[in-house]
């Protein structure tokens, strides 16, 4: 496997099921003559050949309530298969069918060529969206394109859901004037006929998604506290509008809601590296048996049928499956092109740390790459990603540890890291490497490390506090927590809620600096490659640049690579030629310093 093989990459990204359960619509991302293209496919859920219904920019497929029509977003407008573009406002962020028309969430119209951008709130930018300078509000769009506005004000709405009764529109919002300082999004409703906006949910924590039950109750995804730390498990809550709000998944002590879904009663729970689909009712019904090593990427249901984009048995790329609690998942759409070869992997428990180890052909000890996940409240799933497969195919032992701070083993395992980044997480990395060296798998003279986001932080930290690594690659990594407080799109909220610190008290600055890899830069001797998305708002270029400038002034081996138009998850979202370039640079850097 080589970087050029990415040109054959195909990936299923979104799915929706028709109301009668007979048909699934799925978005496929593929490469055509070296350029990325999207296709909207429909496939019978009982099995059968897929049909291409649209080629080009496509997102958010949605069936009409009677199942006879299929709509999607393209270029910020709603389109219906076979009918073309729907009228109404532009810059549509979300939409839903309402009878034979639609309700949409759209940004207010921007002034033409403003001389300046005036910013008065902390939430003026968001990774994955860019600048957030305009409110987002609900509009009705009739079958003929006639439009009426439902909401207004200096706030944004998202997670659009028509109520089952058909007379109200639900959405998430926090209309408070200072919501940027202490955000607490809750479910709000507005009558379809027009009227005041009313807050209707009663969940304590900020809600990230919700859906309606048929009786009008709300199932909300939210943490249990008002100002949650990073390691508090998000749970599903049932809010019947009267009586107590009930947690449906809190007893699991695991994060719920780990994949997008069209109904929050279909949820994904990360448990010990498996991302398991559940149907949530009075009890939880497992839809993807954990012994199959499931990693679930998206869920949708309709007419009693559940469909998932799902990987099983450590497969690198997912396929489309129909789920039934009484039978194993049944594939209904597989990618036509050959899948990347699934590497030989074993799962080890080392000093209390789950570790996935992918061995290349031959006998060890091998040149080895320690891969560090982001978060820190995330965890490597059992299925390797393309980076791991690429490295293993080119002769490296790939080590993916779920160190303390990972979210796959509940609250206490995550809280063991807390705000003390560079402590037990670094200890776990060294313990894993020590054991693999002892086992004769990892070559102690040829160790490398790679990570993105928090994983990039940990790479930067490890090479400043240890001399054991012969090469390192930090992608979109944190280097200076003090400057990151303001430079990160959510730093001013996240850093305080998670106890990392603030920038206006001596203790706050002291702690932020104490957990900053830049503090240890003079000790770095490991050759470092910095990969950076130029449009990353979560871990912006200013962080990597501080590390680069300091190391360059110190005369160390360092390279800084900026990718235009790339954001935080550039391994998956970048233009193809840039993804290939990135993969080539990763192999070249480790090849020069480890092989």
Secondary structure blueprint with pairings:
Layout: E1 10-17, E2 23-32, E3 35-44, E4 51-55, E5 59-63, E6 70-74, E7 77-80, E8 84-85, E9 92-98, E10 101-107, E11 125-126, E12 130-131, E13 136-141, E14 147-149, E15 158-162, E16 168-173, E17 186-191, E18 198-199, E19 209-212, E20 218-222, E21 235-239, E22 246-247, E23 266-271, E24 274-280, E25 284-286, E26 295-302, E27 305-311, E28 319-324, E29 327-333, E30 345-350, E31 353-358, E32 366-372, H1 386-393, E33 397-402, H2 411-415, H3 424-438, E34 442-452, H4 454-465, E35 471-475, H5 481-487, H6 491-497, H7 506-514, E36 528-533, H8 541-553, E37 558-563, H9 570-573, H10 576-594
Parallel strand pairs: 32-33, 32-34, 34-35, 35-36, 36-37
Antiparallel strand pairs: 1-2, 2-3, 3-4, 5-6, 6-7, 7-8, 9-10, 10-13, 11-12, 13-14, 15-16, 16-17, 17-18, 19-20, 20-21, 21-22, 23-24, 24-25, 26-27, 27-28, 28-29, 30-31, 31-33
How is this structure best summarized?
The chain is of the alpha+beta class. The protein is built from 10 helices and 37 strands.
Task: Describe the 3D structure.
With 595 residues, this protein is α+β, with helices and mostly antiparallel strands. The protein has a domain of 215 residues: Rossmann fold, CATH 3.40.50.1820. The protein is built from ten helices and 37 strands. A hairpin with a 2-residue loop joins strand 23 and strand 24. 46% of the residues are buried. The mean pLDDT is 95.
């Amino acid at each position: 496997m080589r970087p050029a093989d990415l040109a054959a990459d195909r990936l299923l990204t979104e799915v929706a099921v028709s109301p009668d359960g007979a048909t699934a619509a799925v978005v496929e991302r593929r490469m055509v003559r070296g350029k990325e293209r999207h296709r909207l496919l429909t496939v019978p859920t009982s099995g059968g050949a897929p049909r291409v219904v649209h080629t080009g920019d496509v997102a958010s497929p949605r069936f009409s309530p009677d199942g006879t029509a299929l709509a999607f977003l393209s270029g910020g407008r709603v389109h219906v298969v076979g009918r073309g573009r729907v009228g109404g406002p532009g810059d549509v962020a979300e939409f839903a069918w309402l009878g034979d028309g639609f309700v949409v969430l759209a940004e207010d119209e921007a002034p033409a060529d403003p001389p300046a951008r005036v910013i008065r709130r902390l939430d003026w930018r968001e990774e994955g969206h860019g600048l957030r300078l305009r409110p987002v509000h609900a509009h009705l769009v009739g079958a003929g394109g006639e439009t009426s506005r439902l909401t207004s004000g200096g706030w944004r709405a998202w997670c659009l859901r028509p109520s089952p009764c058909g007379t109200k529109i639900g959405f998430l919002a926090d209309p408070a004037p200072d919501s940027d300082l202490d955000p607490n999004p809750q479910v709000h409703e507005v009558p379809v006929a027009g009227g005041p906006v009313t807050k209707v949910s009663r969940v304590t924590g900020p809600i990230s998604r919700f859906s309606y039950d048929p009786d009008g109750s709300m199932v909300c995804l939210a943490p249990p506290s008002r100002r949650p730390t990073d390691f508090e498990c998000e749970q599903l809550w049932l809010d019947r509008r009267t009586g107590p709000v009930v947690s449906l998944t809190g007893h699991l002590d695991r994060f719920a809601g780990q994949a997008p879904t069209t109904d929050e009663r279909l949820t994904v729970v990360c448990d010990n590296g498996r991302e398991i689909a559940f149907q949530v009712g009075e009890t939880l019904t497992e839809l993807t048996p954990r012994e199959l090593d499931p990693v679930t990427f998206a869920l949708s249901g309709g007419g009693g049928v559940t469909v998932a984009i799902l990987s099983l048995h450590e497969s690198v790329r997912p396929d489309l499956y129909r789920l039934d609690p009484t039978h194993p998942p049944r594939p209904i759409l597989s990618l036509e092109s050959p899948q990347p070869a699934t590497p030989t992997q074993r799962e080890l428990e080392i000093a209390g740390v789950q570790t996935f180890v992918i061995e290349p052909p031959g006998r060890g000890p091998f040149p080895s790459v320690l891969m560090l996940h982001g978060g820190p409240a995330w965890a490597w799933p059992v299925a390797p990603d393309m980076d791991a497969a690429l490295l293993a195919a080119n002769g490296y032992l790939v080590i993916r540890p779920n160190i303390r701070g990972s979210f796959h083993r509940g609250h206490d395992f995550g809280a063991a890291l807390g705000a003390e980044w560079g402590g037990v997480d670094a200890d776990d990395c060294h313990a894993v490497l020590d054991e693999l060296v002892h086992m004769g798998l990892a070559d102690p003279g040829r160790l490398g490390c790679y990570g993105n986001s928090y994983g990039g932080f940990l790479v930067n930290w490890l090479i400043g506090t240890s001399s054991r690594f012969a090469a390192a690659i930090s992608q979109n990594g944190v280097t200076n927590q003090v400057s990151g407080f303001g430079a990160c799109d959510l730093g001013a909220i996240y850093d305080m809620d998670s106890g990392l610190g603030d920038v206006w008290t001596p203790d706050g600055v002291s702690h932020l600096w104490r957990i900053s890899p830049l503090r240890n830069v003079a000790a770095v001797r490991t050759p470092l490659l910095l990969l950076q998305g130029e449009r990353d708002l979560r871990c912006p270029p200013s962080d990597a640049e501080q590390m680069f400038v300091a190391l360059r002034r110190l005369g160390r081996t360092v390279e800084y690579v900026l990718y235009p138009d790339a954001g935080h998850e550039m391994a998956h979202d970048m233009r193809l030629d840039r993804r290939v370039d990135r993969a080539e640079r990763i192999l070249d850097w480790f090849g020069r310093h480890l092989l």
